[in-house]
Every structure is written in C-alpha cells, then in structure tokens.
Design brief:
By secondary structure, the protein is of the alpha/beta class. Helix content is about 40%, strand content about 20%.
C-alpha cells in the first residue's frame, strides 16, 4: 500500500517522533511510505526505504496552510504521485490536507496529538465541525477525546502513541543509575510542558538533596534562555543541567533514576512511555489526559494533583528517599507498556489503512 504521511515539519517534537517510528514500522512491513513536510529541517534519522518529500516554501504565501495547499495540489496533479491514503498529523494541517484529498479523491485519516480541551479556539472549532467530517477517520490518543469527536458524527479511532524503545529488563543491573531527575521536551514550549514550574519545584527538592541533579533535555533557543534565567535566580542553579537537543534519549533515560513530567496539558506523552520502558521511576502531574493512561498511581508510578507544585515537590522527595518504592514502580512498569508496543500500535494503523481503502 502507498501511504503518504503529512506533517508540518520533522525538526523535533513528540508528533514528529511518532511519525518517524510508525513510518519505520510500516516500511518494514512492506508498505511504500513517503513523509511529506512543508517547513523546517530534519532531526530524526529515517529508514532509508522511506521516501522524503519536502514541499517547502512558496513565493507568494508564507503560511504553511496556504503554500502547502498549492504545493500539494501541484504534487498530486500527477496521478502517479497519488497515494492510496494520506495520514495527516497536527490538527491545523487538516485545513490544507483534507480539501486536497477530497478534491483529488484520495482517502485521508487525520490525527489529533493533543486533547481537545486545551485548544478549543475558533480556528479549531471550524476545523473540527466543518472540515473534519470530510475525513475518512480521525484518530485520538486517549479515551478522553473519543466521545467529544464522536458527538460531531466523526469516525473516531483510538490510536495511542507507540513506545519507541524495547522495554529493558527490570533485573538488568549492568548500569548504575545516577542520582538524577530527568525531563525531556521542546523547551520553546516551556509553558505547555510546565518547565517554568519545574524550576520552582527543583529548588524545593534539590536544596534538601544536594547530591541530586535535575537534567532538562530539549532544544529551543528562546526556551533555554528563559529557563536558564529562571534557574540562575535559584539557589540550586549548579544542580540544574540543560543539555540542549539530544538524540541519545534512550541512554539518557537508562542513566537517570527518576523521570518527571510537569506538563500543564498533554495528549499521550511519548517521553513518559520511553522513561518507563528504560527503567526510570516515573512521576507526573495528573493533567487532564495522558499520564493516567500510562501510570496507575502507587502501582507503577506517582500521579500528582494537577499543577500542585508543593505536592510534586513532596512526591519527588518521597521517591528520592525511598529506593524500595522506586524499585517497586520499575518492576511494575512493563505490564503497563504492553498496549503501547510498536507491534500493537503499528498493526492498528495497518488495520485502519486496510479498512479505509477497502471501503470504496
């Protein structure tokens, strides 16, 4: 099957990481996969069998939606360029991809990568109510979104993010973890990811635990500058480490004892799945969707009242001072990750593609 996966860019981010993982799985299963982008550079190494198409820049329009529409129409004008199905990622891209698909008679699936309650602005209301009904299916990450999109008469499919790493054996003692709390994300989205609050939390925790550090992993010049300024105004600035963008996420997680998710809102956080898979003990704010789909509180991690900074500091201190509890959570993590395996999620995508293409 020929599948085109369309996304704004591949220059870092959770949705982009999902696209790279799913594309690799699909091409290894014998499907012809193209990743088409409209701006930005690439941060992920892709399987060489995946075709990359960059429909970047238009002399008249700077908006991705406008220039992308004309670039895509031009590209698909040749029938030999048309796929069996388009998989469109990041919601606002639907303004461009759905009309193109319908004009040219191409099947299309659109994928939501955040929960609906965090982005209920006018542009999305128009998209969800007037444009999405023309898509063949809409995928969502968690149960939280299913009824909302079904109420609009859409064909809604639950499609969780896959965990990109094989789960490490919880009996693997070959690596000594560091006394390190780690968090990962796009630092330019520091408000979304709660990294600003995490600096405040870190001061409460690291002051009491001077042998521990907080490692903040992620790119974004604006975000790094802002967060470094916040960190420099604390008494624990030497215990807060900024690594910039890193590709060796797996190794960083293996080295770290605790993973913290401080987000104000999420879809289904990739980094939380990855951290659990590599033996980090996980703690997360119980924001409106995402963390509770992964963590069962007190069984395989800690869920903290959403944006309660004091409670998060207390939870981190509890984990730091209770290695037995950390080990319990690590031991129980693998079972929670089964439904997020690339085999399970990848096969769900293949089944969905087959169903959509079959229903001509």
């Amino acid at each position: 099957m020929k599948v085109d996966i369309l996304i704004n860019k591949m220059s870092g981010g959770g949705a982009e990481r999902v696209v790279s993982i799913i594309s690799d799985y699909l091409v290894n299963k014998g499907h012809n996969i193209r990743i088409i982008t409209f701006t930005g550079s690439d941060s992920y190494e892709l399987n060489k069998a995946i075709e990359r198409v960059k429909l970047h820049e238009h002399p008249l329009f700077h908006s991705v939606v406008f220039h992308g529409f004309f670039k895509l129409i031009s590209f698909y004008k040749k029938k030999e360029n048309r796929p069996d199905i388009i998989s469109s990622h990041i919601d606002l891209l639907g303004y461009m991809t759905i009309p193109v698909a319908k004009l040219l008679g191409i099947k299309i699936i659109v994928s939501e990568h955040m929960n609906h309650s965090t982005r209920n602005d006018l542009s999305r209301k128009i998209l969800w109510n007037l444009i999405y009904p023309f898509a063949n299916a809409v995928t969502v990450l968690t149960e939280y979104d299913i009824d909302f999109f079904k109420s609009k008469g859409l064909n809604v499919i639950l499609m969780p993010n896959p965990c990109s790493f094989e789960t490490r054996s919880n009996t693997d003692t070959s690596v000594d973890t560091k006394k390190e709390i780690i968090t990962i994300g796009d630092l330019n989205r520091y408000h979304h990811k709660g990294f600003d609050n995490l600096i405040t939390i870190a001061e409460k925790v690291l002051t009491k635990n001077p042998e521990w550090t907080l490692k903040i992993v992620g790119g974004g010049d604006t975000g790094i500058a802002h967060l470094k300024n916040l960190a420099n105004n604390t008494t624990v600035k030497d215990q807060i480490i900024f690594t910039g963008f890193r590709k060796d996420i797996k190794e960083l997680l293996i080295d770290s004892e605790i993973y913290v998710l401080s987000s104000r809102f999420e879809g289904l956080p990739m980094t939380l799945l990855e951290a659990m898979s590599q033996g980090s003990c996980c703690i997360a704010f119980n924001c409106v969707s995402g963390p509770s789909d992964v963590i069962t509180n007190e069984l395989n991690g800690l869920l903290i009242e959403d944006q309660n900074l004091e409670a998060m500091a207390n939870g981190l201190n509890r984990l730091i001072n209770n290695p037995e509890l950390r080990q319990k959570f690590k031991q129980n993590a693998p079972e929670a990750l089964n439904k997020f395996s690339i085999e399970n999620v990848g096969n769900k995508w293949i089944s969905l593609f087959n169903e959509i293409v079959k229903n001509d």
